[in-house]
Amino acid sequence: MKKIYLVFAVFIIATLILTACAPTPEPEELTTSEGMPPADAIPAEETTEEGEHVEGTVAEDADAESESIWTQDYITEVPPIMMSDPYFEIFGQTDGAIPYYYEEAVKLAGHSCGAVSGAWTITRKALEVLYPDGEIPVRGQIAVDAPGAEDEWFVGVFGEVITYITGAAPKSGFIGAEFGQTDDVFVRQNKMVYDEEPTKQLPPMREWIFTRLDTGARVGVKFNLVVITPIPTPGRQAMGKKMAAGEATPEEAADYIEYWNDRALFVFENADTLDGFFTVTIYE
């Protein structure tokens, strides 16, 4: 009887050894008799918790993201402003300068217009003076004196765009915590300074003063938005109210949309060529 058990045990062991040594089938062998892969070889379709099929692949999602979300092409055609930020570097989030895009400023403001494009260009021109010869500007290394109170005219709107690019924030900005105790470049609070009271200056006279804190270099930029065309006539202002109320006809809406975006385009197309449009003053 013991011999029988011994023979049976040897047989089982031999079978296991032969099975383990059998070659793994190549991928093309993993098919059914109809040439299709077996059910357990087909990746399961992604479903939601309710069991609904989720369409699309990673490649398709990437293609969708590469398509512009904007119906106005110029919004993504504005050259970016390259900036470096010490926070990105100490946290290991980037190795160098990164681009700041106009379309992000548009998202911040809620729209593109002559004022947003003007604020963007004011900042670009100031940084080109403070950081010449291709030097990359540093966020947190710049202080800005605003030409008025933050709730006066569109001063605060301009300021928010400038803050986005430079990092210079009003009293609501980041205090720097332990990082700012080591180096002021990490402090963002109170580097955008608004007047306490309205100045009542006319828009063309408003001058934004940018100071580079490590060198003390200062530059002022004025933006004469009065020369922007098409001009905002009373009729167009009335049409703006109709647009907001949803009462404009399709033809009126199309005309107003063209007018509105042409003003922003005018800024970008004439910022560096039209005399008196942007006035840059370098202070000693």
Report on this model:
The protein is of the alpha+beta class. The protein has a domain at 80-228 and 263-283. It is 40% helix and 11% strand. It is built from 10 helices and 7 strands. The protein has helices at 2-21, 58-66, 74-77, 86-90, 102-109, 114-130, 155-166, 177-182, 234-245, 250-270; strands at 81-83, 98-100, 142-145, 192-193, 207-212, 218-223, 278-283. The strands form 2 sheets. Strands 4-3-5-6-7 form a 5-stranded mixed β-sheet. The chain has a two-stranded antiparallel sheet with strand order 1-2. A hairpin with a 5-residue loop joins β5 and β6. The radius of gyration is 31 Å and the shape is globular. The chain starts with a helix and ends with a strand. Residues 1-65 have low confidence and may be disordered.
Q: Which properties best describe this structure?
A:
single chain; 284 residues; alpha+beta; 5-stranded mixed beta sheet; two-stranded antiparallel ribbon; 10 helices; 7 strands; 40% helix; globular; disordered N terminus
Q: Would you count the extended β strands for me?
A: 7
Q: What pattern of helices and strands is seen along the backbone?
A: HHHEHEHHEHHEEEHHE
Terminal Cα span? 109 Å
Q: How much helical structure, as a percent, in the residues?
A: 40-55%
The class by helix and strand makeup works out as: alpha+beta
Average predicted local confidence, pLDDT: 83
Largest sheet: 5 strands, mixed
